[in-house]
Amino acid sequence: MRSKRISVVTLKNMAILDTDFISKLHETTNRENQTLIDKILELPYFFCCHQQTVVELQKHLPWAKSWFKEKTRPSIIHLYSDLELIITLAEKVFSGNTASAFLLYRQFLHESCSLFSRRFYEIHYQELETLTQKSSIEQISSAIKNGDSSVKRGENLGEIKSCTMCLAQ
Predict the structure, then answer these.
(1) Which distant-in-sequence residues (6+ apart) come within 8 Å of 37 by Cβ?
(2) Which of 49, 53, 78, 85 has minimal CB crowding within 10 Å?
């Protein structure tokens, strides 16, 4: 799996989009009936979001699936999974060392979880602590998915993933 290269992007021209931002700005339109989010996407920024944002929007808003498809095909919005974040970290920070990147990602996820609850990470992602630098990418992926699937609706998974993404950039 190749990562989306963002090494030339600086924090000054990057915007990480989250569920609330997209949904609220999609409801606001100008005189030409163009949504505010579509207007914002014309700005000279590298727009990205975590795939969890797409999952959450698609659960509640009928327009989300086609809108994201329209925005991701020409790379207006770049979507990242957890594994893509790990691979990007490996390439940007650790000269391709995925094991070290995973350890940093795990720290970022832990910090993001702690913003919402002191025990959130240990409740949902404790399995990640059993993995080592010798763990395969498949084991890492499985542990992340297990943690994600244990999070109940309304427990801020999208916000946690967006925050993790911010820290990883």
Answers:
(1) 21, 22, 25, 26
(2) 78
Q: Does the pLDDT at position 154 exceed 50?
A: yes
Nearest to 1 by CA among 116, 120, 95, 82: 82
Q: Give the torsion sign (CA, 117, 123, 127, 132).
A: positive
Rg of the chain (C-alpha set): 17
Q: Which two tokens stand for residue 142?
A: 């499985």
- For helices 51-60 and 64-72, give the axis angle rounded to 10 degrees: 150
Task: Report if pTM > 0.70.
Answer: yes
Domain limits of the chain?
A: 13-80, 82-168
Number of Cα atoms under 13 Å in the Cβ half of residue 117: 13
Reduced to 3 states (helix: H, G, I; strand: E, B; else coil), residue 46 is strand
Q: How far apart (Å, rounded) are the C-alpha atoms in residues 143 and 140?
A: 5
Rounded CA-CA distance 99/105 in Å is: 10
Helix, strand and coil percent figures for the chain, each rounded to 5:
60, 10, 30
Q: How far is CA 158 from CA 57, 70, 77, 152, 154, in A?
A: 10, 21, 16, 11, 9
pLDDT tens-digit series, residues 105-127: 999 999 999 999 999 999 999 99
